[in-house]
User: Which sequence fits this backbone?
């Protein structure tokens, strides 16, 4: 078993099977979307023909939704999974956010939350897609001046309750829409059915992965994660790799990786952030080059799936640095051209 190859194939970073961005997000279950500009490349690089325009179409049409969800952080989810993810994750995400508020000495009374929530919903309804500046202006007009930090907590709570979600995609600035206007919601699932579905999505897209990885990624408690794994039964089986138990599916892909290929991976990408332990693809001695202990992730370069350097996404030319010598600059340049082509198509 080659765990790196299986992970590349499962993550759609080698021989991708999907043409549409929304199919990628659905396959992955949820994708970290911390960096507003780079989340587009994170999805598109997993499609057969990466296209910024295709991502925008899927995002603006509501097939891909961005909101705070798992672990209280930004995620992309497919429209078909939106209601399921709210039902599974909102309670834990609210608790996490309330903990952050307490540590920042911010207290929001129920009457303030309701009044502000109503104003946010009305502003989103009136604008179609509203920015934080639109919200601040509307609150000022109602006699509720508010700084952006406090407002961000109100927005999160409106997302957790299914009131707000992402609006249309702008180049640099997030927008918000009424979820009822943006998402074609599916009916509520039985919780066991939802747990099983989320479990399948995680392991089909992130395998090989451990129970601890699944707990970290989902933000759910260990009991829920164990239950989800039990519900999918023999579809999952475990293997021991260097003293740890990893889980794989019987239908995993094992062929399709091309040797010598470089990947320009955006910050906060699922390839790293989707796991608690990342040493399969990230040599421990280079961990600090990929992320710090505060949860800040950097853009990284991977060769044959192993993280080996950093790159800068926002320049006009390819700027790459490697942890070790001996890498082919021409192949890195080819990966850079793929990235540039994505931005213009």
Assistant:
């Amino acid at each position: 078993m080659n765990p790196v190859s299986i992970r590349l194939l499962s993550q759609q970073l080698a021989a991708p099977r999907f043409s549409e961005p929304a199919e990628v997000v659905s396959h992955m279950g949820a994708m970290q979307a911390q960096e507003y500009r780079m989340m587009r490349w994170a999805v598109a690089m997993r499609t057969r023909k990466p296209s910024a325009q295709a991502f925008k179409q899927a995002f603006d049409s509501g097939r891909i939704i961005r909101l705070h969800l798992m672990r209280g952080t930004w995620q992309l989810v497919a429209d078909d999974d939106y209601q399921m993810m709210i039902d599974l994750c909102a309670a834990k995400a609210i608790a996490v956010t309330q903990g952050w508020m307490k540590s920042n000495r911010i207290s929001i009374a129920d009457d303030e939350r309701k009044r502000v929530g109503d104003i946010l919903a009305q502003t989103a309804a009136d604008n179609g897609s509203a920015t934080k500046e639109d919200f601040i202006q509307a609150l000022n007009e109602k006699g509720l001046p508010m700084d952006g930090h406090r407002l961000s907590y109100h927005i999160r709570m409106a997302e957790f309750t299914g009131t707000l979600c992402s609006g249309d995609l702008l180049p640099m600035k997030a927008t918000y829409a009424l979820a009822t206007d943006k998402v074609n919601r599916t009916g509520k699932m039985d919780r066991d059915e939802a747990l099983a579905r989320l479990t399948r999505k995680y392991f089909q897209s992130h395998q090989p992965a451990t129970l601890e990885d699944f707990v970290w990624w989902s933000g759910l408690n260990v009991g829920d994660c164990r239950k989800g794994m039990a519900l999918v039964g023999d579809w999952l089986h475990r293997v021991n790799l260097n003293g740890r138990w990893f889980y794989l599916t019987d239908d995993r892909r094992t062929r399709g990786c091309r040797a010598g290929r470089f990947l320009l991976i955006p910050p906060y990408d699922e390839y790293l952030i989707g796991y608690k332990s990342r040493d399969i693809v990230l040599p421990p001695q280079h961990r600090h080059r990929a992320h710090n202990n505060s949860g800040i992730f950097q853009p990284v370069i991977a060769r044959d799936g192993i993280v080996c350097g950093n790159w800068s996404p926002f320049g006009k030319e390819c700027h790459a640095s490697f942890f070790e010598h001996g890498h082919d600059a021409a192949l890195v340049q080819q990966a850079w051209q793929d990235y540039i082509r994505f931005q213009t198509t």
In short: Residues 3-182 form one domain. The chain has three domains: 3-182, 191-249, 262-343. The two ends are 37 Å apart (CA to CA).
